[in-house]
Specification:
Protein name: Quinone oxidoreductase
Oligomer: single chain
Keywords: NADP, Oxidoreductase
GO cellular component, one term: cytosol
GO molecular function: mRNA 3'-UTR AU-rich region binding; NADPH binding; quinone reductase (NADPH) activity; zinc ion binding
Shape: globular
CATH topology of the largest domain: Quinone Oxidoreductase, Chain A, domain 1
Structural class: alpha/beta
Number of helices: 10
Order of helices and strands: EEEHEEEEEHEHEHEHEHEHEHHEHE
InterPro entries: ADH-like_C, ADH-like_N, ER, GroES-like_sf, NAD(P)-bd_dom_sf, QOR-like, Quin_OxRdtase/zeta-crystal_CS
Helix content: 25-40%
Number of domains: 2
Number of strands: 16
Length: about 325
């Protein structure tokens, strides 16, 4: 029987279990996918820890790439043998084989590997909506991206640079600073050595930046606001250090009539036409070499607990994949 990672209670990585699972024939509107690579993302740790509650017991993981083995009734867009990738839908991507709703899938171009497909859907589509939809970066913009050496960060650095932006990034070590610079980051700020807002003001001649992309959350939120110029946009899209505590919205007015948004990828890809358009743009910049995916860690799927420990300890860079 095929295996999958599941958890019956929330907690640390030790709650993840490698178990046998039964995979029935795909229902109407579904396809059965044999995974070749599975994406590892910080949101997986939120589900496991209970920060984002899910019904228990539960599977885990929202992103993978593989080959279709069977299609259910009514599925016309896909056929057995198709190479596909997906993000979203019911939790359970940490598995060898599973049934997936066909509307969540996109065809993976032959020019891209399964590892690339598994590593790019969550992080790459996040970078796409950040740069092209939440705040549309234009040539000449100067942007700030936190965790610039992480999976989303490295993609944002490269893509923003290709769009003609100046990129400021925060990192936690000089080694990560070098990695960020090698991927398009013009100014790497090592934290907590530097005051981020002071350095951003210095880099921008006191003006501040029009947008901050912040996946760190609680520890960086207030200083991120201080980096923005008047009418700037604060995009808080993750909680790596914990959720942002409540604050007085009047602060946004006092700091320059700032805009604040807390987006999530799944609202941006809720309509299939948006998913297909965003994936096509992502695949195009990767195929053109404007964005290189840095898959720096590979873990056996059954060792998902180890992967979570490494991710939460900030010992990973770029993207990580789990291999069935």
């Amino acid at each position: 029987m095929p295996h999958a990672i599941r958890f019956e209670r929330t907690g640390g990585p030790e709650v993840l279990q490698w178990v046998e699972v039964e995979v029935p024939p795909p229902a109407a509107g579904e396809v059965r996918v044999r995974h070749q690579a599975v994406g590892l993302n910080f949101i997986d740790t939120y589900h496991r820890s209970g920060l984002y509650p899910v019904p228990l017991p539960s599977g885990i993981g929202q992103e993978a790439a593989g080959v279709i083995e069977a299609v259910g009734e009514g599925v016309a867009e896909f056929a057995p043998g198709d190479r596909v990738a997906y993000v979203g839908g019911a939790l359970g991507a940490y598995s060898e084989i599973r049934n997936v709703v066909a509307s969540s899938l996109v065809k993976l171009p032959d020019s891209l590997s399964f590892e690339q497909g598994a590593a790019m859907m969550m992080q790459g589509l996040t970078a796409q909506y950040l740069l092209r939809r939440t705040y549309r970066v234009e040539p000449g913009d100067c942007i700030l991206i936190h965790a610039a050496a992480g999976g989303v960060g490295l993609i944002v650095c490269q893509w923003a640079k290709a769009l003609g932006a100046t990129v400021i990034g925060t990192v936690s070590s000089e080694a990560k600073a070098e990695l960020a610079r090698a991927n398009g980051c013009d100014h790497a700020i090592v934290t907590p050595v530097d005051s981020v807002s002071a350095r951003v003001r210095e880099i921008t001649g006191g003006e501040g930046v029009p947008v901050v992309y912040d996946s760190v959350g609680k520890d960086t939120f207030m200083d991120s606001l201080a980096c923005l110029r008047p009418l700037g946009t604060m995009v808080t899209f993750g909680n790596a250090s914990g959720p942002v505590p409540p604050f007085d919205p009047g602060l946004l007015a006092r700091m320059g009539s700032l805009f604040l948004t807390r987006p999530t990828l799944f609202h941006y890809i809720a309509r299939r036409e948006d998913l297909l358009a965003m994936a096509a743009e992502l695949f195009a910049v990767v195929e053109a070499g404007q964005v290189r995916l840095s898959i720096n860690q590979r873990f056996p799927l059954k060792e998902a607990a180890t992967a979570h420990r490494e991710l939460e300890a900030r010992r990973t860079t770029g993207s990580s994949v789990l291999l069935p």
